[in-house]
Amino acid sequence: MTGAAAQDLLALRALLEERFPDASPITRRAATQLATGIAQLDQALPSGGLPRGRLSVWAPHGGATAILRAACQGILAVGERAAWIDSVGTVAGAFWDDGPLLVRPSSRLNALRSAEELLRSGGFALVVLAGAEPKGQETVRLTRATRDGGSALVALTTHAAMSALKLTSRIQPADYRYTRTPFGDPAEITHARVRVDAVALGWQAHAAFVLPVTHHELRLSLEPELADRRGVSR
Amino acid sequence: MSYVCLWSPSWPTGAAFPAELITDLLQHVPRVRLGAGGRVWADARGLDAGALALTLVDVAHRHGYSNAHAGAATTAIAAELAATQRRIPFTIVKPGHDRDFMAPFPIDVLDPSTLLDHLLDGIGVETCGALAALDAASIEILMGAEGVRLWKLARADDPRLLFASPARALPSASVDWVDYALRDAERLLFVVNAQAATVCDALAAGGHRAREVSLAFALADRTEFVHRIRSARPTASQKAWMRLIRTALDRITLPDAVTGVTLCVESAIGNDGVQGDLFDKGFASAPQVERAVSQLMDDQGDVVLTPRNSAHPLVDARTEWTREDPAVAATSGERGVAKAQSGARPTPRLTLQLVSPPRPVSVRTAERRDHQVPVQYRDGQTSYAIVDAAGPERVSGGQWEQGGPYAREYFRCVREDGTLVWLYRDAVGSGGGSQLAVGGSQLAVSPPTVLPSYRPTGWYLHGWWD
Asked: What is the CATH number of domain A30-212?
């Protein structure tokens, strides 16, 4: 390619990025990033985090909630804000860490409205939309609001249309680590190894790391290694 | 100059104080107050304090109190001493010189307690100036709280607030018509819109924001219907209030035609700005966040929530959700920084997500030594094999609580797709759960043993870890 042609190509690329900012791949590093706080994941993601002003899609389960909640806390720690839209009411109050704005709308449509309102305010670095899947024009609206507000929007859904970054995390049954009772039965599940796959236009990466498991404080047995057997049929 | 103090050693004090003197004084100054010991205080803010002091002395002389003295100063204590301790008709203390003015006066003018008076005598402190020259730490150690109070007074640091901010009438707008009665909602809205413009303009002019307004409808049957509207965020915006009023008018039903409307502000707050840190990343966007959260609450009700947890043994009964204040929501970044500075590091961890309410599932169990563990469950049309199960963990109680007793056996089960789910067997409920076994293997039902009133009924999916 001649020098003039290369210059023309660069100019065309710059023009396209200016006219169609959502169409340019995030690997071009046009978007600023939002670190998740997990070093292995941030190293794998393009630009070192979730892209601001873009829609990212994360398939539910497999540790997605844990990672995004930690990302919310990390964002708060640097003085910015994060919001979590829990449209199906799965957040357990007993395990919710204070800080991110928690919105619990009554319906899917209200969840999408909430997301748009918060994104357009421009005051949130990260908005997580859990349990409500945007479809068709709804996705277009949310994408525009995300770009206007400059936030990173992460939707916990499998519908990946218009997303700049697609993430999938999974835990295999063999990835769990247990402590066992003296009889060899599982007593506590302590850790799980999570593998995250990230895919963007013309790019993909993987990361793997270990997450601890939060317990639910139900155990009534005095010995933590022993299962509570009171009242069991004999 | 802030205060003028007028005092005469000969005028009566307390209830016998001549009321007509106060009436005459009020013709020259808008705010007058009778204080302890017969001190008459005038609010000189915005006025020429020297001229005012002279005028007030003249008025007192006209009422026969020829020995009246006036003092004008920035602080109340300096004005009081100028009026009561000087033997000339009026004294004006130059702004910024209150402490110097007080310095030569003996400590007794500050009315110390006998104990403190003796203590000050003992260390040779005789004048206000000598006391003011001491350092705060020595005073606090030697003389305690009363000593510090006296020391502050000696330095012309007087915390008295003699004239509080006056309560202002809140704006309102009223329209009545007599030749017809209104039944058309659109025309009613048109009228209210004009009233809202008047009220919001008045609020903005006074530097206020309304928190709550009331709409009072005069009805054709000569009754009145009052409806109050509260905004999640105090505002003087006509647009915001009209949105709320429109929503309210859609919901209410008026019993008769309308012959008049009054829009009245019920409570308002000042329009003071909040001081902030330029290096705080979230400060610049705080008003937008507050507005967005308020808008969400106005549109959808209390959807921005914060949990308040108890120590209830059941996770699903442990939390009470309370409404988050929009102003507090806007400061989440500041709180996050404070939390980080205290050493708390965000650590990702798999956390329990709840299925609310718990969903009945069909479970197949297998015997493991002396108890049954789930090995497969069906949720709707999908069947999941369980690779490993930890448990049971039993929780029971509530015999004397509202809602009745509960007894559950919880299992943490790893599904074949890698999801860690939380299943429980309800051992006390009266049906509702599915007791069907999958695949015809062992049924999750066993005869009641320990507590005869408990009978195993069904299995539920209560959550998963994510």
From this structure: 3.40.50.300
